[in-house]
Description:
Elements: E1 2-7, E2 16-21, E3 29-39, H1 41-47, E4 64-71, E5 83-86, E6 89-91, H2 97-100, E7 112-113, E8 133-137, E9 142-143, H3 151-154, H4 160-170, E10 178-182, H5 186-198, E11 201-206, H6 212-218, E12 222-225, H7 229-233, E13 239-244, H8 253-256, E14 259-267, H9 281-284, E15 289-292, H10 298-311, E16 317-321, H11 325-333, E17 340-344
Parallel strand pairs: 10-11, 10-13, 11-12, 13-14, 14-15, 16-17
Antiparallel strand pairs: 1-2, 3-4, 3-8, 3-17, 4-5, 5-9, 6-7
Amino acid sequence: MTTKAYGAQAADKSLEPMTIERRQPGLHDVQIEIAYCGVCHSDLHTVRSEWAGTLYPCVPGHEIVGHVTAIGAEVTDFRVGETVGVGCLVDSCQHCDSCHDGLEQFCENGWTGTYNSPTKDAPGHTLGGYSQRIVVSDKFVLKIRHPEEQLAAVAPLLCAGITTYSPLRHWEAGPGKTVGIVGIGGLGHMGIKIAHAMGAHTVAFSTSESKRADALKLGADEVIISKDPAEMAKHKNRFDLILDTVGSSHNLDAYTTLLKRDGTLCLIGVPEHPHPTPSIEPLIFGRRAIAGSLIGGIAETQEMLDFCAEKGIVSDIELIRAQEIDTAYDRMVKSDVKYRFVIDIASLAS
């Protein structure tokens, strides 16, 4: 089955229209007509081969929202016409300890990404959501309960939403907890919204005074300008959890010293170069921890979507046509978006 898509043939080539193959739905498959696909910084890194191992042709996209158009004979949880989503995962081994625990993102035998992962389907690796349709195992399809008019802004929840929700949930953000969010971008703006909705006292960290008003509007109770050492020093031993969303190398000591005893600095941004080695003393003398977190499993992603639907949470987006994707990538590099681009997949028809 052929479908229109947008992708790159090489790292130094612009994204362009292409025709790709999708398998016919098997017994446990769901076929989805894609309406919207969010644009993640991972898409840019992969397309431009800034991370090792890009397979071409590369069709990115793992923040997918659409409608079911066909189901396999043994699919029972979905029906034609239903609004659904697909995130970063489309398969895992299903038998390791992590998979048994519903933590497919930590599959010990390697999970299958929505794009750029080996697969039996042509062309030998997965092709993502910058396309008109996709076929996915029913175990990795999610129900979307937001209203139709919000669907474009729901798409980034499938990556940015779950990437921030999972650590907030794991470290029990909520009433009585003080949570910091470092960086006010695609991930950070979702972290602020979700932490606030969970009932935590939410503090945004930004290097820029100009982002103070935006952070407060997103739901932050306070804003700290992180490049001001005197201001940072006022908040030592204060935070239960700090979620660091920044995707560039920086000094972690500035944040570990702000943690309470037994507090955690959780890293979810992947820097282009390793962070400077953190000082050990703040960790030892406060039993503090530096940890990491990766998206979420399917059950937790469904929980996040339901939570966001209940609370009325969506991403702040700029809707674009597929033909504008290279310009969008260039703007992402400059942080010139508030806060996520989303592709209107209807534009592929032209």
